[in-house]
Amino acid sequence: MNKDIYNSILFDGISRDDADMILQRLGVSEKSFGRGSTVLKPGENPGVFGIVLKGQMQIIKEDYWGNRTIISSLHTGDMFGEASCCPVNELVPFSIIAVTEATAFIIRHESLFSAGLIPCSCHNRLLYNLTRSLAAKNNTLSRKISHITERTIRDKLMSYLSEQAYLNRKNYFKIPFNRQELADYLSVDRSAMSHELSKMRKEGLIDYRKNSFKFL
Fold first, then answer.
1. 72 strand-pairing partners
2. Among 40, 68, 151, 177, which has the minimal tally of Cβ within 10 Å of its Cβ?
3. For position 60, what pLDDT does the model report?
């Protein structure tokens, strides 16, 4: 069993032996994705959700004209597609793209909710952890909304970077985006954002190199 699966919130509070038993009973499959490949497509009901075992993925929303917004970044142990579990006929409104070579465990919705497949105590914990994951995703979306609703590009940048500093508990940190991805996440023009970052560095507010930032 891939040991990275135990890092997932889905198995928090569940022993490794019980997790192995659960995965065996659920008939989980491991799938690999090439860099840039689509993991989930919008407008479909795939009937599955997944757990990232290796690599990085992104949740993407595109409009009719192809303008892209990055909703969030996924790393080892993160879940995706679980929001379509309830109701089971909910269509996926976004796409998930493998940013790097990636692997994931794929779990079918109906197997998770099938009575008798999993002992009651483990089943209750799984459903509790699934609810926690959904709540965490809601908080992630709320934070993103707070960033992109700021009036200026500088305000958007400061809102996001301040949050990253807080989450890392220090004034120097790395973000999971390159320049274009950061612009897509904040819904701003890349050139205008890069210009604003340069101004902020000249003013002594921040320093940065690639995706590493520091508040001065």
1. 59
2. 151
3. 92
In the prediction, which pLDDT does 195 show?
97
Please give the sequence-ordered ranges of beta strands (E in DSSP) within 20-87, or none if there are none: 29-33, 38-40, 48-54, 57-62, 68-74, 79-80
Asked if the peptide bond before residue 87 counts as cis, ω within 30 degrees of 0, the response is yes
Positions in the chain short of pLDDT 50:
none
- Helical residues (DSSP H) of the chain, grouped into ranges: 16-26, 109-113, 120-148, 153-168, 179-186, 190-202
DSSP state of 87: S
Measure the CA–CA gap between 196 and 207, rounded to whole angstroms: 12
The C-alpha atoms of residue 130 and residue 40 are separated, in whole angstroms, by: 19
pTM, two decimals, is 0.79
Q: How far is CA 83 from CA 23, 101, 129, in A?
A: 20, 24, 13
pLDDT of residue 86: 61
Neighbouring C-alpha atoms within 13 Å toward the C-beta of 59: 20
pLDDT at 8: 87
Which residues 6+ apart lie within 8 Å of 211 measured at CB? 174, 175, 176, 177, 178
Tokens of 23: 């995965």
* 121: three-class secondary structure by DSSP: helix
Report the percentage of the chain scoring pLDDT > 70. Answer: 91
pLDDT of residue 116: 65
| Distance (Å, whole) CA 28 – CA 30 | 7
